[in-house]
Amino acid sequence: MQTLITVAAALCCSVVAAAQVSVEQVTRDLASADSGVRLRAAQRLKEAAPLEAAVPLAALVIDPQDDVQFAAIAAEVNIFLADKIVPRKRVALVIELRHKIAADEIFSAGPLAIGPWPVPVEVLTALRTAVRDDNRSVGLEALYAFGSIAVEPGGSRRRDLLRSAGPDLAALIGAADPALRLAAIRVIGRLFLKRPQDQPIEPDVGDAVVSALNDKDNAIRSASMSALGAMRYERAVQALTDIFQHYGRGDLGLSAFDALARIAHPSSAALFSAQLEGKNAALKGMAIEGLGRIGDRSKVPNVEAALQGERNDSLLLAGRFAAVLLENVPIDSLTEALAQPRQREQARQYLVEIAAGRSMAFNRQAKDPDSRLRADVADILGLGSNDAALAIVEPMVGDTDPQVARAAERAVARLRGSRPTT
Questions:
Q1: What domains sit in the chain, N to C, each tagged with a CATH number?
Q2: Within a 13 Å sphere around the CA of 382, how many CA atoms are in the beta-carbon half?
Q3: CA distances from 118 to 188, 205, 413 (A)
Q4: Is the dihedral of CA 295, 297, 298, 304 positive or negative?
Q5: Are 184 and 191 contacting, i.e. CB atoms less than 8 angstroms apart?
């Protein structure tokens, strides 16, 4: 028993001692000539995730040693997560639980996984450099880490980032490794997701994604269509139309049609209208979305006729989305759908689009008695990237519910960063 007490006491002392070590002491070890010292420093900073360590850690992202790089990349990601991951956790001072920080999983979790803190350009530059590492696994981890945290910059910082990173990412689409091609396309789709203040996408970036529509890997082709839709890249319309007409209701055909509906070029209106009379619910829903985004109010009777007697909840929700865009009806039916598990993600995507141009439509919901709805509204307005929404989310930072306050803080940071600068 005495031995167990002694061991427990020693463990407690080591934990307290570790907590007392200053960030300055650890960051000094990042420059050590001993790779073991650098590795231990990176691992400790990965666990502590202090914001002030982000820039010093950037040097280890391109370290000669792979294990040091992995630790540094994981540390950088953890620093900017909204909810930090605890890589190691002791239970009863004996059992140690380990949680991996995997950049691809964090990327897949979406932009809300990232907190409100500004990401230094040194960190983003180091991650982009590491993408070209000789070790394929290091490169992929760095690429997904970059894609995860590069959503933070807004305004002039975002314009500079897109201008500098675009050509590098586009070049990766020609890589021999299909995993790297897929990751590059996914990151481009996330990074270049259309925001209200964005400049037109450079053709060398958009056309590179269009070229991937001919890839032999169907996963890459589907990812390319998703990226082109997110970017709303109009130069892709003809290629996507050709794919849809060739594959029809197949998976690739549906992906192409969805991309067309997101781009919503007026030249696609006839194609969308033709699907309103079809029996395929997925195509009909995308067609309704596309007509709503085009904004031609003369199509309202067509959409209403297509939904007459319809019981499919997803289609009805698409119709409500189109009604908001075409007739400026209230968003109540869409925000109510957030409480329905089967409709939540579809409704959230619609509301983010609406927030980009109609942020004031969320005034009432931002004061709703339901704290879950208020938190959703804050997140949605932040993702909408319309800085006019600051008038709504800034007061929400003082909300009595901590989840709402955190969501509002994240939204305020993003919206302030989206303000245009002169």
A1: 266-329 (1.25.10), 334-422 (1.25.10)
A2: 30
A3: 20, 25, 8
A4: positive
A5: no
User: Do 368 and 336 contact (CB within 8 A), yes or no?
Assistant: no
Please write the tens of the pLDDT for every residue from 137-180. Answer: 999 999 999 999 999 888 889 999 999 999 999 999 999 999 99
Tell me whether residue 99 is exposed, middle or buried, using C-beta atoms within 10 angstroms of its C-beta: 0 to 12, 13 to 18, 19 or more.
exposed
Residues 296/273, Cβ–Cβ less than 8 Å: no
What integer is the mean pLDDT of 215-240? 97
- Give 95-120 pLDDT, tens digit per residue: 555 567 899 999 999 999 998 899 99
Return d(Cα 105, Cα 101) in angstroms, integer: 8
pLDDT band per the 50, 70, 90 thresholds, residue 93 = low
- Tell me the C-alpha distance between 419 and 406, whole Å: 21
Residue 237 has a CB neighbour count (10 Å cut-off) of 19
**Per residue in 200-236, is it b (16+ CB within 10 Å) or e — as a string?**
ebeeebbebbbebbebeeeebbbbbbbbbbbbbbbeb
Q: Which of 95, 87, 91, 61 is nearest to 76 (CA)?
A: 61
Predicted confidence (pLDDT) per residue in 53-83, tens digit: 999 999 999 999 999 999 999 999 999 999 9
Cβ(151)–Cβ(410) under 8 Å?
A: no
Average pLDDT over residues 361-381: 97
In the predicted structure, residue 385 carries a pLDDT above the cut 80: yes
Q: How far apart are CA 142 and CA 43, in angstroms?
A: 16
Task: List the helix and strand counts (H, then E) for the chain.
Answer: 23, 2
Burial-class residue 34 by CB neighbours within 10 Å (0-12, 13-18, 19+). exposed
Contact 69, 59 (CB under 8 A): no
Distance CA(182)–CA(189), nearest Å, equals 11
Task: Give the DSSP letter string of 55-71.
Answer: HHHHHHHT-SSHHHHHH
**What angle, 0 to 180 degrees and rounded to 10, lies between the N-to-C axes of helices 35-48 and 66-80?**
20
Instruction: Give residue 136's pLDDT.
Output: 95
